[in-house]
């Protein structure tokens, strides 16, 4: 009987802890990505495709409550309609009450580079590459986390990713891209995009869940330091 009671108490405590943890999960809305580059892979639907990719990546961490794109778009349209004055004040949706969301994540592709070095035709088949030129792709995304209640920027960070392929290395691509990016799923560009999405999700999990003083922030702060140093080093100032 004592064991049964202990098991019941444990179950109740575990359930209460799980509920408490669930309530503490930040609720995020991910906005459509924007683009400030001349990347050839960007098209009219790419912003939404990247938005969906980040939503899926954030949801997979189990650390956030994430608004689906359709849900987010519907709420924003409802808010815009209410702000237009065409709906009575007593029934319209109030801006800043985004279905309980605490943060909006805004992302802009701010830099993209791709190139090749070496010589040779190379062979590519079924997701494998062997020989040929060394291909390289680099992407940078400016990230902003906006507090919905205050409109203030709660966090900002530039996230980078670089990928390479070619030469005599054998590469196997285990992830794919859909929508307007389907043609890039087996390229260094596709790998760089996917890696950048994963890096964003990892950073947000560290920043918003563990906090600015968490050990994991040391790694991201070091990356930021190196990024800024590299950027300063590439700038030639006229004397």
Question: Would you kindly provide a brief summary of this structure?
Answer:
This protein has 239 residues and is α/β, with parallel strands linked by helices. Helix content is 39%, strand content 24%.
Question: Could you walk me through the main structural features you see in this protein, from its secondary elements to its overall organization?
Answer:
This protein is of the alpha/beta class. It has a single domain, classed as 3-Layer(aba) Sandwich (Rossmann fold). Helix content is 39%, strand content 24%. The strands form two sheets. Strands 1, 2, 3, 4, 7 and 8 form a six-stranded mixed β-sheet that branches. Strands 5-6-9 form a three-stranded antiparallel β-sheet, with no helix packed on it. About 12% of the residues have low confidence.
Label this structure with key terms.
3-stranded antiparallel β-sheet, 239 residues, 5 helices, alpha/beta, 6-stranded mixed β-sheet, Rossmann fold
According to DSSP, the number of beta strands is 9
Number of helices: 5
Report helical residue fraction. Answer: 25-40%
CATH topology: Rossmann fold
Record the SSE blueprint.
Elements: H1 2-24, E1 27-30, E2 34-35, H2 46-60, E3 65-66, H3 69-83, E4 103-117, E5 123-125, E6 128-130, E7 134-147, E8 153-165, E9 171-172, H4 188-210, H5 216-233
Parallel strand pairs: 1-3, 1-4, 2-4
Antiparallel strand pairs: 4-7, 5-6, 6-9, 7-8
Helix pairs in contact: 2-4
